[in-house]
Amino acid sequence: MGCSCCDYRDAADRQFTAEKAAKELQVYRKGRLGPTTRLLRDGVIELGLHHGSLLDIGAGVGALTFELLGRGMTEAVVADASIAYVTAAREEAVRRGRSESTTIVHGDLLELADTLPTASLVTLDRVVCCYPSYEPMLDEAARHAERGLALSYPRDRWFVRAAIWLENARRSRKSRFRTFVHPPFRMQQVIQHAGFDLARRRTTAMWAIDVFVRRH
């Protein structure tokens, strides 16, 4: 497992560079959110899950984390496999005065799992599609979630698969990083088996955005 995690982190560093992190941070600072981030934020708030602690897996520059901290979350742990994104998230936490309430760690979820705390809410914005095997990631995410689990992922449609195939082919010479379209029904089963019910689903042309609430 250690070798696999190292391979993933190496691929993530090649794909998610300092240049990309800087561009995403600049866009976020202008007040613009990607559609999946915005829909995850709104879904979490609508369901009253925006209080307590947050574990944001694959958080990138931390946009969703900072949005939720600004709307009721009291503390957050940010985890990302790209050192460039971790650096950008730390920079933004300082700029926003969120250093005290935000812990930012570098690494792969499956490598970090035993060191990460549980949280009221666990989020994975466009993260599951970065892993060839989704079950272990979702199992760990659910294990760490006390009240809610929210995620976005590519829809299983022919045009989405075609777009991702082309993107993977384009980057094949530069990086071993790949994106995957996993079966939504099976992912839902994994999360439901862990004790959660689907409370909200929204879609864009390319993405599905789900929020699950722990069963009482």
Q: Could you walk me through the main structural features you see in this protein, from its secondary elements to its overall organization?
A:
The protein has helices spanning 2-15, 18-29, 35-46, 63-69, 83-95, 109-112, 134-144, 158-171, 184-193, and strands spanning 52-57, 73-80, 102-106, 119-125, 145-154, 196-203, 207-214. It is of the alpha/beta class and 216 residues long. The protein has one domain (2-120, 140-209): 3-Layer(aba) Sandwich (Rossmann fold), CATH 3.40.50. It has a seven-stranded mixed β-sheet, sandwiched between helices. The model is unreliable at 1-6 (pLDDT under 50).
Summed up, what is this model?
This protein has nine helices and seven strands. It is of the alpha/beta class. It has helices at about 1-15, 20-30, 35-45, 65-70, 85-95, 110, 135-145, 160-170, 185-195; strands at about 50-55, 75-80, 100-105, 120-125, 145-155, 195-205, 205-215.
